[in-house]
Each structure stands twice: as structure tokens, then as C-alpha cells.
Write a structure and sequence with these properties.
Elements: E1 2-6, H1 14-22, E2 29-33, H2 40-47, E3 51-55, H3 58-64, E4 69-72, H4 79-88, E5 92-95, H5 103-116, E6 120-122, H6 128-138, E7 145-153, H7 170-173, H8 177-180, H9 183-193, E8 197-205, E9 217-224, E10 229-235, E11 257-263, E12 266-272, E13 278-285, E14 308-315, H10 320-332, H11 344-361, E15 365-366
Parallel strand pairs: 1-2, 1-4, 2-3, 4-5, 5-6, 7-10
Antiparallel strand pairs: 7-11, 8-9, 8-15, 9-10, 11-12, 12-13, 13-14
């Protein structure tokens, strides 16, 4: 398998993509386009002699080589041109989110991929817990869905913004945490509920007091086409400072990342962990004879049959990049469904920028 890597300067998860590729025995040749040469040593460290050529542009890379799949991971303002070059060369793409500074910049890429029958897989990977929740809801175990509540706290990344190149530039990213952190939630909220978002309102603001161009906190409410509602609260609130002098992987224990889904027959509660494994609880109503209404506070200590049945599981973390690469290859080779729909990134970007408009105007935004 030949792979193209398109990057320039900082890539949000570029090292993780390299780690995933380094674990595969079927990678024959890797071609890198990185005019900055910023990532060259790291690519060599992970892939060694499999890196056979380095280019100053994607066009030059594709003109001289045939590859099966492309991975693009760079600043959102650069990303669309790189993706376009791959698609025009007839090569399917995995692209790091948010992939563009606006929905308008991304929409032509979806059209191009669709017109050529190619995969455009934005890296909105779903954790095992999210996939389990999607399955539970799709099977109808919760009945009609009422609400989804999401909470996520991140490291105080803004404290190291001088190390993060384009990440805190509005011009180069188009947005803040909603685009490069909470985008996964914008994608999986409607996926879990099983219905598209029709309306959104709320706030995307700077609450840290720092002179930032982009939001460090969000509080939003949404309405879905099936009548369900949802909320997302999140921000750079964690007491740890990622990559700071006292940082360690244990710092993830100070963060909170999870969601609850409420339906007519029960609920799901998920508490995800640093490696994005997680604990999942499913509470379902007991479907037996109608029970008498308890008359005292001590009723729960008697022998009444439980009205709720609880199921719990601990789900291990998955190699999300590895899974995305394999599922993409399976689809390209005709051995399975796509890992994500071509228009998933476009839907996420429309959701993201509708939140910004709602925050700026104070008016609810309609998506459908």
C-alpha cells in the first residue's frame, strides 16, 4: 500500500496518524508533501525507509506517484487546497478536522468527492462508547428520545498558545474549540439521537479573561428534527496545562468528558476517560406488571420488585486513527461501508458556524 501524507507545519494529530501507520505491516511506500519540512524528522522517526520521497506540493507528489489513500493534516485555511489536489488525482482522502475555515470552503470538496465516487473521510472518529450508544438508540431500546446532554472539559491549552502556531488564529482556523476539539460532539449528537439538528442557540465565548480571538467555552442548546432536544457545555477548564512543566497523562483524570441520553424507556450515561475508553451505564424500565406507587420514603428498603434494570460495562479505548484508516481502506477496496459519510464534515461545519452566529446575534439559528 502506498500512502500520501499532505501537511505543512503543525498538524493537529499528525503524530498520531504516523503512529497508526507505523503499526501496519502493509505500508510499502509513503510520500510526503511538506514544503515547510517541519514534520520531516518525525515522519522518518516513525516510518523510516518507507518514506521514499518528499515534495513541495501535493500536485508534484501525485504527478509522479500512484497512491491508494491520502491523509491530510494541516491548518484549516490550507486544508481545502490539499484535499482538492488529492481528489483531482483520483485518490480518496482522510482529512483532519475541522478541515476548512467555513462550510462554504468545504462544500466544493464534498461535491468533487461525490462526483468522482471517492471517499472524503473527515476524522470525526467515534469512540467505542459512542458507537454503543448509537446502537442502543437505533435498536429502540430507549424508545422515543427526549434529550441528550454533553459535557466536556479540556486542558487550558490557551496557556501554551505560543507553541501552537495557527490553532488560536481566527483567520487560519475559522473557529476555536468547537472546530478542533468539540467537533466530535457536534458530529455524534445527531448520530446518537438519530436525527438531524434543525435549530441551535447559545454562546461561544472567552471566559478565561485572556485576549483570545477564539472561544474557550461553549454553552449551546439544540433541537432535533424528531423533536428531541440537547445541550453541550464545554471549555478549557481543566486545572492541568497540556504540555506544561508538570504535565503527565494522569492529568486527564482531572477532566470530565461524557454524555447522557434520555428516552421514554430509559437512559444511557457515559463517562469517557483520557484514552477515550469509558464507562457506560444503561438504565431501562422494568417491563412487568404495574407496581403500586410507594407511599413512604422507606419503600425502597422493602422487597418491592425493582422498577429499573441497570446494565454497566467498561469499554476499552480504541486505536481511533488505526480504525479510521482500516475502515477507509475497506471501503475503497469494496469490503465495507465508509467510516463516515462524505458530507459529515460539511454538516459539522454548518453546525459550528451556526453556533457562532447565534452567539454573535443572540438569535436562534435554523439549520434545516
Amino acid at each position: 500500500m502506498n500512502v500520501a501524507l499532505l501537511v505543512e507545519k503543525l498538524g493537529w494529530h499528525f503524530e498520531a496518524w504516523l503512529q497508526a501507520l507505523s503499526k501496519r505491516s502493509d505500508v510499502d511506500k509513503v510520500f510526503l508533501s511538506d514544503p515547510s519540512r517541519y514534520n520531516l524528522d518525525m515522519v522518518r522517526r516513525y516510518l523510516g525507509d518507507k518514506l521514499v520521497a518528499v515534495y513541495d506540493s501535493p500536485q508534484a507528489l501525485f504527478q509522479e506517484n500512484e497512491v491508494e489513500i491520502t491523509i491530510v493534516d494541516t491548518a484549516p485555511f490550507r486544508t481545502p487546497d490539499m484535499v482538492q489536489a488529492s481528489l483531482e488525482a483520483g485518490v480518496s482522502v482522510i482529512v483532519e478536522k475541522p478541515a476548512a475555515t467555513s462550510p462554504e470552503a468545504y462544500a466544493p470538496l464534498v461535491e468533487l468527492a461525490d462526483s468522482k465516487g471517492l471517499l472524503l473521510a473527515i476524522s470525526l472518529m467515534e469512540t467505542p462508547a459512542v458507537r454503543e450508544a448509537i446502537k442502543i438508540v437505533a435498536e429502540g431500546q430507549l424508545g422515543r428520545i427526549y434529550n441528550i446532554q454533553c459535557l466536556i472539559s479540556d486542558h487550558q491549552r490557551w496557556r501554551i498558545r505560543d507553541q501552537m502556531d495557527w490553532v488560536f488564529s481566527k483567520e487560519k482556523t475559522g473557529g476555536g474549540m468547537l472546530g478542533h476539539e468539540f467537533c466530535h460532539i457536534l458530529n455524534y449528537m445527531p448520530r446518537i439521537v438519530g436525527s438531524d439538528v434543525t435549530h441551535v442557540t447559545g454562546f461561544a465565548k472567552v471566559v478565561s479573561g485572556e485576549p483570545l480571538e477564539l472561544e474557550d467555552s461553549v454553552a449551546i442548546s439544540v433541537l432535533f428534527a424528531n423533536g428531541a432536544m440537547g445541550t453541550l457545555n464545554g471549555g478549557s477548564w481543566g486545572p492541568s496545562v497540556m504540555n506544561g512543566p508538570e504535565y503527565s497523562k494522569e492529568m486527564y483524570s482531572f477532566l470530565r468528558y461524557g454524555f447522557s441520553v434520555w428516552g421514554e424507556k430509559g437512559a444511557i450515561h457515559v463517562d469517557m476517560e483520557g484514552g477515550l475508553g469509558g464507562n457506560i451505564i444503561k438504565d431501562l424500565q422494568y417491563e412487568g406488571p404495574v407496581q403500586p406507587i410507594p407511599t413512604t420514603r422507606l419503600t425502597h428498603r422493602t422487597n418491592h420488585q425493582l422498577l429499573v434494570q441497570r446494565w454497566e460495562a467498561k469499554l476499552p479505548p480504541a486505536d481511533r486513527m488505526g480504525v479510521m484508516i482500516q475502515e477507509s481502506l475497506d471501503y475503497i477496496r469494496g469490503n465495507g461501508p465508509p467510516p463516515i459519510a462524505n458530507d459529515a464534515g460539511l454538516k459539522m461545519l454548518k453546525f459550528q458556524h451556526a453556533v457562532y452566529k447565534a452567539s454573535e446575534t443572540g438569535e436562534t439559528q435554523q439549520l434545516l
